[in-house]
Design goal:
By secondary structure, the protein is an alpha+beta fold. The chain has helices spanning 50-62, 125-135; strands at 10-19, 22-28, 37-38, 41-43, 65-66, 69-79, 84-93, 96-97, 108-115. It has a single domain (10-135), classed as Nucleoside Triphosphate Pyrophosphohydrolase (Alpha-Beta Complex), CATH 3.90.79.10. The protein has 2 helices and 9 strands; from the N terminus they run ββββαβββββα. A hairpin with a 2-residue loop joins strand 1 and strand 2 (22-28).
Length: 137
């Protein structure tokens, strides 16, 4: 089994996509946080800007084109026992083109629109941070 050495946190990105007051979440099939509902998004590659990464990940995962993005919050996922450390800006999107669909079923178990006061019980940390930021606006 190969080992990986870490030199610092990894960088991810997520997008809180809202439509009619509901938040779009996707089910995670892979670690970290497999089995949880999460914001759509992914990792930021070297030399890639976070907003560019967010737009690209959403297009790849859901097949939609995002409108204007606003930085909503930054989420830290620190789990030494899982050998995971992520720093992830979460953006807010109120406008998009197309209808979201799961384009990477090997990575995601489902998608759904949820009212902020009726979220599923198994939420990824990115969702908790985004919901807290949305409710404090």
């Amino acid at each position: 089994m190969a080992t990986q050495s870490w030199t610092g946190p990894r960088v991810g990105c997520g997008v809180a996509i809202l439509r009619d007051g509901k938040l779009l979440l996707i089910g995670r099939a892979r670690p970290p946080e497999a089995g949880c509902w999460s914001l759509p998004g992914g990792k930021v590659d070297l030399w890639e800007r976070t907003e560019e990464a967010a737009r690209g990940e959403i297009a790849e995962e859901l097949g939609i084109k995002l409108g204007a993005l606003e930085l909503l919050c930054v989420v830290d996922y620190v789990a030494p026992e899982e050998r995971e450390h992520w720093v992830s800006p979460a953006f807010l999107a109120n406008e998009f083109e197309g209808e979201p669909a799961l384009l990477e079923p090997e990575k995601h178990t489902g998608l759904g629109w949820f009212a902020l006061d009726a979220l599923p019980s198994s939420l990824a940390r990115s969702v908790l941070g985004a919901v807290e930021a949305l409710q404090s606006r």
